[in-house]
Amino acid sequence: MLKRIAKFAGFLLAAVVILSILNPFFVYRVNRYDPVDFVGYYEYSGVIGVHTKYSDGGLSYADLGKIADSLNMHFVITTDVNTDKAMARSLERRYGMTLMIPAVEISAHDGRQRFLVIGDSIPTLPGDEVTVDSALAQATSQGSFVVACDNRNHSDDVTSSSDIGVPFSGIELYNFSRDLRSMVSLTGVNKLFGAFLDYTMDQRTLNYLIRYRKNRMSEFDKLNDRRKIVGIATTTLPPNTLLKKSGGVRFPSYESELEFVHTIIVTKTPYSAQYSHDRDLTIEALKRGHMYVAFSGLEPARGFYFTATSGDTTGMMGDSLRLYGRAQLRISLPDSNEVETRVLKDGNVIRKYENTGSISLGIKSPGIYRVEVFQKRTMLPLFLERSYPWIISNPIYIYKR
């Protein structure tokens, strides 16, 4: 029995190594110039929360920028831990066509709680004379976007953001590192094994580890019931190294990390050739919630569209509207098979649509509306069908007249 377990463990390790070697050559690359199905809006795909050598990451700022550009990313926001070196050294620049925007991750409560501070100015970092609360309050007062993230040592999915007691305007809906750590469980090992088998067929690899974070989404809805909170996805994992001697293999690769989950902003103004304009446009879209979370490793997600029209006013994700009798929700999906679209009001599913690419839904009551889209896939080795989250929108807020 022990020999069989050892053989299986050896096979699994070999599978992980082979997967990590092959994956960089087959990851999904964003097409920066993909046309979209709607007029008047522009979409830009990005990754938030990558670490570099300025803290616990494995790449220099320039090397990370080159990899991101090779994957055609529109922007990357780095958040090195408790250091402002990247911002202080004026590393805000483009690498190829990719915007590299340095920000800061602030750890609190012995490193268990994390906050991201994204803005134009260098935030004051906590120290002997500066508390975490005062540093974050200062960042908020200066117009920075402060995001409450996963509690590192929390056994549950919920950050308990409502109990933090410090100002924040966004929360982390998904975290690449957290989902990857789920592989240590028995079911996680099975998912990894299945992901490796499926990889040989359709190149979907790490995205088979995705799970729907019900507790986190419930918290997101409850917080939005009190005040507007923006939901983003992050990629805070510095890749681990296997075979750490020269020629070591990183698992997951930075390429895999950058393709796993994207935050896609939606703007009415296009990027320009000017860095400061495009950086400000990106940060403003994040602060306003003009964006959605997309697991592009499953399938390209750019082209998703969610608006609400009431009277003569049309709003997109993150916007607020007054209800004039009746409002019309419009949803459009990129081409895909076997999808389920859920429309939620105040955290409750009110409609489900199967394999419908264009949706128009009339509503008569005020509320907080958002959209979730799932893809159905058959999971090897047991050939079980499972739904994987693909697109998670930010809400549209519709109030009484």
Concise overview:
The chain has helices spanning 2-22, 61-70, 85-88, 132-141, 176-181, 186-202, 214-226, 254-260, 275-288; strands spanning 42-50, 75-81, 93-95, 98-108, 113-118, 145-148, 170-175, 230-234, 240-242, 249-251, 262-267, 291-294, 305-310, 313-316, 320-322, 327-332, 339-345, 348-354, 358-363, 367-379, 384-393, 396-399. It is an alpha+beta fold and 401 residues long.
SSE blueprint and pairings:
Blueprint lengths: L1 H21 L19 E9 L10 H10 L4 E7 L3 H4 L4 E3 L2 E11 L4 E6 L13 H10 L3 E4 L21 E6 H6 L4 H17 L11 H13 L3 E5 L5 E3 L6 E3 L2 H7 L1 E6 L7 H14 L2 E4 L10 E6 L2 E4 L3 E3 L4 E6 L6 E7 L2 E7 L3 E6 L3 E13 L4 E10 L2 E4 L2
Parallel strand pairs: 1-2, 2-4, 6-7, 7-8, 15-22
Antiparallel strand pairs: 1-11, 3-4, 4-5, 5-6, 9-10, 11-12, 12-21, 13-14, 13-16, 16-19, 17-18, 17-20, 20-21, 20-22
Care to describe what's here?
- The termini are far apart.
- The protein has a single domain (2-301), classed as TIM Barrel.
- The protein contains 9 helices and 22 strands.
- The chain has helices at residues 2-22, 61-70, 85-88, 132-141, 176-181, 186-202, 214-226, 254-260, 275-288, and strands spanning 42-50, 75-81, 93-95, 98-108, 113-118, 145-148, 170-175, 230-234, 240-242, 249-251, 262-267, 291-294, 305-310, 313-316, 320-322, 327-332, 339-345, 348-354, 358-363, 367-379, 384-393, 396-399.
- The strands form 3 sheets. The chain has a 16-stranded mixed β-sheet that branches.
- 25% of the residues lie in helices and 33% in strands.
- With 401 residues, the protein is an alpha+beta fold.
- The protein is globular and about 60 Å long.
